[in-house]
Amino acid sequence: MAHAIVESSWAKLTSAIQDGAAPAPRHPDLTSDLRKMLEALDVVRPLLEEAERRSLLKEALRIRNAAVRICDLVDELHHDSWAPADGKVLWNSSRSSSGRV
């Protein structure tokens, strides 16, 4: 989201500079200041891209960890439902045939 705002601002500043923004009486160096803002955005853009990449990576790791916890829970539930006896896997008698207690 922030990336889109920076890109939009960059496009507007570039357009204003190319169109030759007319200096205002109260701001005679408008074009120069617009160029400085554009330079600042050029510095911010790669930093913002890196921050967004790291944020996505962090979120992906959270999702992966949740998936691992779910797999562990399923394994635990499966182990509790099926009990090995003499090398054979038997249905735990505490559960009904539907798998519910």
Descriptive account of the structure:
- This is BAG domain-containing protein.
- It comes from Triticum aestivum (Wheat).
- The chain is mostly helical.
- It has one domain.
- The protein is built from two helices and two strands; from the N terminus they run H-H-E-E.
- It has a two-stranded antiparallel sheet.
- Strand 1 and strand 2 form a beta hairpin.
- The longest helix is centred in the middle third of the chain and has 52 residues.
- The model has no long low-confidence stretch (mean pLDDT 77).
Secondary structure layout:
Elements: H1 2-18, H2 30-81, E1 82-85, E2 88-91
Antiparallel strand pairs: 1-2
Oligomeric form: single chain
Class derived from helix and strand content: mainly alpha
Point out poorly predicted stretches.
none
The strand line-up of the biggest sheet is 1-2
Coarse morphology: rod-shaped
